[in-house]
Amino acid sequence: MVEIERAFVGGGDDTWAAALAEQVGVDVAAVLPDEVRRGDVYLLDAATPRGAEVFPFGNAFSQCRDLKRDPSVLVFVAIREGDAYGAEIARFCLADGVVFVAADGGLDLSRIAERLAPRRARTGVDELLGQIEGRVGAGSAELFGSALQKSLAAAEAPGAVARWTDAETGLFDGPFAGFKLDEEFKRARRFHQPLSLVLLDAGVTAWPEDGEARRTVLAEIASIFLNECRDIDVLARFTPDVFMFLFPGTGPDGARIAVERIVASLRERAFSVPMELRPAAGIATVPLAGVRDRRAFLALAEAALDAARKTQDEPVQVAGI
């Protein structure tokens, strides 16, 4: 247990001092001292009315904040059951913990007991490295079967990947694309980096009726996307006829160049099943004034795609330009 020399209770009833004394092992005064000493322990009642003589600084929270000017003192604030905000305010005022007072007046001092319990000695770095080396040398199943490694193995398992991909193209599916859009949009805003969103309609006038032929065409279309895009780009089949690309760190000019190259490849490709494609694509890039969420971002790309569908002279349209 931490060595305690003095302890004090501010507010509460007559039983609080005895209860705290049992925890800290010293006599507890019911009046706060004029001078704070290193290592003092304080228990303050948040329900004490403001202006009471118990707290020179007005109430338990302001008293806590004043006492914590000395980081060595321990201050606990007692909160009544049903107080929805007391614990948060206590943490804001740098309290070392809160204790709870039941409706019948019972005082739970377990938080104080935990705080004063002896702490386990830290293991030295050299000793830790020695332990790890020994376990690696022994091929410890415990080490290689850690929770983190199991999670990574589960994420890389074929079954897990299959849940996120479109069966006909091998690209990510629509729901996962929506998740990635939200994730990349937040990352771009946080780090003030450009992010381009592309919606591309392959422009297939008539899909093959044969299922195998359809899958072959879709696989060939997906192969063009994979060949033209980077590893860090996100490629997805957003809807049955529309594909989504996310280009991190790419502005509108770079996105336009990449998409025009993809559109040209789609037009020039000799597919296994003879057919003609009329691709169209819309591009939106953030940061852009007025775009504060992914819905607005997606709406811009959709509007650009609609504009591109209306003309084959400019099948790639960039929103905001």
Treating each run of at least 4 consecutive H or I residues as one helix, how many helices?
12
Secondary structure class reads alpha/beta
Poorly predicted runs = none
Shape: elongated
Reading the helices and strands in chain order gives EHEEHEHEEHHHHHHEHEEHEHE
Helicity range: 40-55%
* CATH topology (level 3) name of the largest domain: Alpha-Beta Plaits
Fourth CATH level, the homologous superfamily of the largest domain? Reverse transcriptase/Diguanylate cyclase domain
Strand order of the largest sheet: 2-1-3-4-5-6
Number of strands: 11
End-to-end separation: 68 Å
Rg value: 32 Å
Strand content: 15-25%
Largest sheet: 6 strands, mixed
CATH architecture of the largest domain: 2-Layer Sandwich
How many structural units, i.e. domains?
A: 3
Q: Average pLDDT, to the nearest integer?
A: 84
**CATH hierarchy, class of the largest domain:** Alpha Beta
Question: Overview of this structure, please?
Answer:
The structure is a single chain. The protein has 321 residues and is of the alpha/beta class. It folds into 3 domains: 110 residues, Response regulator (Rossmann fold), CATH 3.40.50.2300; 29 residues, no CATH class; 145 residues, 2-Layer Sandwich (Alpha-Beta Plaits), CATH 3.30.70. Helix content is 41%, strand content 17%. The strands form 2 sheets. The protein has a 6-stranded mixed sheet with strand order 2-1-3-4-5-6. Strand 3, helix 2 and strand 4 form a beta-alpha-beta unit.
